[in-house]
Specification:
alpha+beta, 4-stranded mixed beta sheet, globular
Length: 112
């Protein structure tokens, strides 16, 4: 029983701190795909430690005109990465790739 505890501590210790990554999900109330996507993103956030926020597409006319009925939309550091369902394998690859970058060598973000 001591071995699994040691292994879980090792995996926690090896987890990269991805707090420099901002993941935003554009969502809508009553959207079942949005609920599924949020659960996936929250589980990934717990594993990887990135910042996660949600914005309601109906909160403003600019969001409605930009995304319309196409929700959920997942943006990683301001860039659209997923529309509709999230592929968990691609999400993990993306987070590992983004985790290798630092704030200094990341390209300029929109709105900076």
């Amino acid at each position: 029983m001591a071995v699994p505890r040691m292994l879980s501590w090792l995996f926690f210790w090896r987890r990269r701190n991805l707090q420099h990554i901002q993941v935003q999900m554009v969502t809508r109330a009553g959207c079942h795909l949005c609920d599924e996507a949020w659960q996936q993103l929250d589980a990934a956030r717990q594993r990887h430690g990135f910042r996660l926020t949600a914005v309601d597409v109906d909160a403003g006319p600019d969001l409605v005109s930009q995304y319309g009925d196409c929700v959920p939309v997942v943006l990683v550091d301001g860039k659209v990465r997923f529309r509709g369902r999230i592929n968990p394998v691609l999400l993990d690859r993306l987070l590992r790739a983004e985790g290798g970058k630092t704030k200094k060598n990341k390209p300029n973000e929109v709105g900076s």
